Amino acid sequence: MTNYMSCIEERDHVFLFNSMVGGGIVFDRAIMQYLDHSAQDYRCVYLKNSCPEGVKKLLFEKGLLNTYPSRRINETVSETNTDKEKAKMIGSLRLTLTNNCNCVCEYCYVDREYHDKNFLSEKDSCYFIERIIKMGGNSKYVIRFFGGEPMLYMDTISNVIKYCNEKLNDMSFEYIINTNLQTVTNSFFEIVTKPNVKVVVSLDSVKEINDVYRRSLVADSYYDTTVANLRKITKENANYVVAAVVTNMNRKSIQQFLELLVKNGVKNVGLNCARMSGEDILSFDEELVNDLYSAYIWGVNNGINVSGYWMLPFERIFTGSDGFYCGGLGFELDLRPDRKIYSCVGAKKPIGSLDKIEEIFSGDDYRRIGQRKAGNIKECSDCYINGLCAGECACNAEYKTGNYWGIDKNQCFFHQSLTEKLIKYHILSADRIEHG
Fold this sequence. Notes:
Elements (H helix, E strand, L loop, with lengths): L4 E6 L2 E6 L3 E7 L6 E2 L9 E2 L5 H9 L9 H4 L8 H6 L3 E5 L6 E3 L16 H15 L3 E7 L7 H14 L4 E8 L6 H7 L4 E6 L4 H7 E3 L5 H14 L3 E8 L7 H10 L4 E6 L12 H17 L2 E3 L4 H8 L12 E4 L4 E3 L9 E2 L10 H7 L15 H4 L4 H8 L7 H27 L1
Helix pairs in contact: 9-10, 10-15
């Protein structure tokens, strides 16, 4: 029988968790007497028969003794699911309004055509949203406005939100706008004050680094313009997060960057690593593990929430894992200006079109995407964060290996090492609380 309980020791405590579904809990080291950890590492830890029933019950309630994947893993896309069941899995709709952008970023992996006049119309956007809702029947959806730079079509954003709020008012929507904040309008400030709107702001580093690799086409300084508008949306009490792309160029300036963000009132920052770019863009080595770990600790001590996709395995230990790396594996659809539909922003191949939207869920491409889940990826089978990482980004795997089902081994080392450091910090935090 497959076993997923794992163990990490640190000083006077032991951390047990399920490598598929999470359920992490800190124990005193005394629990080691009830564990069979004959393996040379922390994978596949078994309970001895002598373990007290009370401890067994606690571990069972936390899900640590589960020998099966989570419910959502079992409900993945398959040939037996009806199209309606598949459509019901969709909870996020991404509207890539344009490939056009008012900036040029050195490492951008998305195919950009600067000054491209093609854009996603308000009519197509609303039709897409309404059709998916009708097919799936959910009561809540996330609508993300993306690009290029979506704020170049602020009227479309405003009108789509108005349409959803007025014509689909029995639904619940959360709106997310990804933007570089280079071009803002009065209507933008009216929208971002709404409680169900979140803004994701692209800003990478201190000015002298950021402006070399993120070059504005409409302002003298990308950094100055974005920071000035950040101050404005902070004053308006907008819900926003700064999204920084970590590269070899800015990784040693992360703390300095965080200090500047704190001074400007920023409470949340996502440090997301550049993946689908040239090999010289970012080295996924031990130094990067330490850089991001140090940034997280600095954030804890200085009042700013530092996160990123590298936090997912650790966070899922406590929140639970559904066995998929991200929503792009069967839970999100991305409509682009060519009126074709993709599984996520990083996907190069469409899985359908707006004209034949009803055929998406019966197609092999959608089913194949939904099958990339924890338990199905052979190279992940002996990993102690198998279901928590779930094979990492599928688009990056295809970019690096040429195979959608491949694994980027550098990412494996990176996620495993960083997750272990975060777990040990959590153990030591529990130790400090216990001992005052």
